[in-house]
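In full, the data.
>
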Amino acid sequence: MRENFFINPKYSHLAEKLEDVLHDFSQNGEYVTKGERNVIKMVQIKGTSFNIKKFKTPNLFQSLVYQFLRKSKAKRSFEYASKLIGLGIQTPFPVAYFEVFSGGLQESFYISEHINYDFDFRELIHNPRFKKRNDVLKQFTKFTFKLHENGINFLDHSPGNTLINETAKNEFDFYLIDLNRMRFEPMDFEKRMHNFRRLWLSKTMVKIMAQEYAELYGKSFKETHALMLKHSRAFQKKINSKKLRRRK
């Protein structure tokens, strides 16, 4: 068995304690999420709170791919978070990643600083009367535009993966999470509008966001709105069709 533990120099003084937590992960911390694929726990060490994400153990083929051909999700999450911060994009600070190999990748963990947040993007979907909703949508559009301008194609740009804090009156900060599916590439207009598809936007939301993006990008509202709406509706139709098939 081989272990690979990499920690940000900022937290090197906690390396031993963090490794102890990881080696006995099932007995440490409080659950934040407990899904079928991944588990996230929060732990406190010397007054600092950390989130530890344990990724699902891959099958034999995938485990060999992760050992020899591709970076693990934990390592990608750490590296992508570091790159985002370098580009001025907010995400919980990357602390460390930990991998266990034995005939392939067996376990992998990503550790980040825990942040308290006010709400996530899902609130804007489920509550059309959400206070300051239009302000948040416009600023979120600027945030997404900044991603695109920096050549960031966040493939999981979905409602649960942006945490939001109100920092001042009508001013909001956005934090990306769940980072392991991301590409750094030139973003043309088609890719940019396609990137909005997973956000499950209503017609009203598309109208507000398309207007804001059109002004930022220098495109007409008509063209921006048409393409954003097209990709949003196509994605929603695809997901709804899958749900319908499962029910049948």
Notes: The two ends are 45 Å apart (CA to CA). The helical segments are 15-23, 60-68, 73-86, 122-126, 133-149, 189-194, 203-217, 221-247. The longest strand covers residues 105-113.
